[in-house]
Amino acid sequence: MTDDTRQHHDMGGLDAETVQPSTHEFEPWEKRIEALVRLLSLRQPPIITIDELRRGIEELPPEVYDGVSYYEKWIAGLTEILVEKDVLSREELDARMADVAARKAAGEPVVEKGVENSGGGA
Description:
Structural class: mainly alpha
Helix content: 40-55%
CATH superfamily of the domain at 27-108: Nitrile hydratase, beta subunit
Oligomer: single chain
Strand content: under 5%
Largest sheet: 2 strands, antiparallel
Distance between the termini: 39 Å
Mean pLDDT: 83
CATH architecture of the domain at 27-108: Orthogonal Bundle
Strand order of the largest sheet: 1-2
CATH topology of the domain at 27-108: Cyclin A, domain 1
C-alpha cells in the first residue's frame, strides 16, 4: 500500500512519537456516549454496528479527526451514520443543537431528563 492510498487515520508503520498511555476518570458525557453506542449496537437487530461506527470515525476529515478527543470522534462518527441511515435528520440535529446553544448562551443549565450535562459536548 502506498502512502497516497492511506486514509488519514491509518498510521501503522509510519514514524511517530511514542504513545504515552494514561488513565483518567471518564466524564459523565463520555460514559453516556459509550452506553448509547452499546444500546444501539447490541440490540437485535442492531441500529448501528461497530464496523459502521469505525467507518464513520475513519471518514472524518483530517482536521476534525486530529482536533477532537476519542469520544468526540465517537459522537461525530455516530451522528453521521445515524443521519445516513435516516434514524435522525440533519434538521432535527440542527434544531436540537440550536436549542442547547441558546440555553447555554442564556446561562441556563443544559439538562436532559434530569441529568445535567457537566462537561464536554452539548
